[in-house]
Amino acid sequence: MNTRTQLLLSAGIVGAALITVGVFTRGGGAAATTAQAGGHVHGASAPAAESANPVRLSAEAARRIGVTYATVVRKPLRRSLELVGNVTYDETRLTDVNPRIEGWIDRLYVDFTGAPVRPGEPLLAVYSPMLVSAQEELILARRLADEAGSGGRERAARSARGLLAAAR
Question: Cα 146 to the chain's mean position, in Å?
Answer without folding.
Answer: 57
